[in-house]
Specification:
By secondary structure, the protein is mostly helical. The protein is built from 10 helices and 3 strands. It has a 3-stranded antiparallel beta sheet with strand order 1-3-2. Helix 6 packs antiparallel against helix 7 and helix 9 (about 160-175) packs antiparallel against helix 10.
Length: about 200
């Protein structure tokens, strides 16, 4: 719940986190919530300072640029590895999971938080068969970090080509065209960063 609230923008960048208040609001014990502060601090989503407590990690355009710079290096490798692994193993379950995630992404949603969750699930489904578990964890963490910028800036909703890019990503992955999938993903990531920058400047 804490990760979801941060990634969706419900808890804003820089906002102080009051364990007792959130525990009461969500109907959970304060102890596991404080443990979640520690865990998410390790992922860079929370900042814990001595004598000052915990707060949502702040964000900036410079942060976004750094995160997307690394994503542009790692995400294509994970995607290509995932598609190649499927081709080598004849894994038919991959197609079903990617198609299902894409259908969910296209469904009408009641909130931006739901859109973000569906968007996350689709992108993770694409790389799910990457055999390098360490790479996959890094991609997932960086994807979550960048989602915060999308949530604040509304970047996913503002990208006019996003629907077509997601369709192209899905088609390329299902056809086993790793080169095409990587090219579309790279353009998608670059476009999202550009949208974040436009909103920040505006």
């Amino acid at each position: 719940m804490l990760r979801r609230a941060i990634l969706s923008g419900e808890l804003a960048p820089g906002e102080k986190l009051f364990g007792e208040k959130l525990a009461k609001q969500w109907g959970v014990s304060a102890t596991p919530l404080r443990e979640s502060f520690q865990r998410l601090a390790g992922e860079g989503l929370v900042v814990i300072e001595p004598q000052r407590g915990a707060r949502v990690a702040p964000i900036s355009v410079a942060d976004a640029a750094e995160i997307y710079q690394v994503r542009l290096l790692l995400d294509p490798v994970a995607l290509r590895s995932s598609i190649d692994a499927v081709a080598a193993s004849g894994d038919h379950g991959y197609a079903g999971s990617v198609e299902g995630a894409h259908r969910e992404l296209l469904r009408r949603r009641r909130s931006m938080a739901e859109v973000q969750l569906a968007h996350r699930a689709f992108h993770l489904a694409l790389v799910a068969r990457c055999p390098n578990r360490l790479l996959l964890r890094q991609v997932e963490q960086l994807r979550d970090q960048s989602q915060r910028f999308q949530a604040v800036a509304g970047a996913v909703a503002s990208l006019g080509d996003a629907v077509a890019e997601h369709r192209a990503l899905c088609d390329a992955a299902l056809s086993g065209d790793a080169g095409r999938a990587v090219a579309v993903l790279t353009a998608h990531l670059e476009g999202t960063l550009a949208a974040v920058r436009r909103v920040a400047v505006g």
